[in-house]
Design brief:
Layout: E1 2-3, E2 12-13, E3 26-27, E4 36-45, H1 54-73, E5 83-87, H2 91-97, E6 101-112
Antiparallel strand pairs: 1-3, 2-4, 4-6, 5-6
């Protein structure tokens, strides 16, 4: 398991199902040569300041992830077979841990081996 602050672009993640009530502090990382469904493709920090709220932060995270999708995958999100999701700071992590980091994660509906970078699908 790797804490969020140690995740890197290109890290691959096996399918793990979480519920909306789960509090996640770290993620399982596997070598991309092993079967996996997810891959981190962008990590970025949002602007510092007051906590903007979950919804506003979600819009910023989604927009940032979408903007980087095509350059990583090789095709636009609209035609890709891949999807994406993201992790964003919570109000608690924002206020108590100065967390400003968004992790954008590609998701394949089928297990893959190898990187999704330049997958072109």
């Amino acid at each position: 398991m790797v804490p969020f602050e140690e995740l890197e672009v290109g890290d691959c993640l096996p399918l793990v199902e979480y519920t909306d009530d789960d509090v996640i502090f770290d993620l399982p990382v596997v070598p991309c040569e092993q079967p996996h469904t997810d891959e981190i493709y962008l990590i970025f920090d949002v602007e510092d300041g007051e906590f903007p709220g979950d919804d506003a932060l979600g819009v910023t995270a989604s927009d940032g992830c979408l903007a980087a999708f095509e350059s990583y995958v090789g095709v636009s999100y609209d035609v890709s077979e891949l999807d994406y999701y993201y992790y964003q700071p919570t109000k608690s992590s924002w206020n108590h841990a100065s967390d400003r980091t968004v992790q954008c994660i590609l998701f394949s509906y089928e297990e893959v081996t190898g990187t999704l970078k330049g997958a072109n699908y």
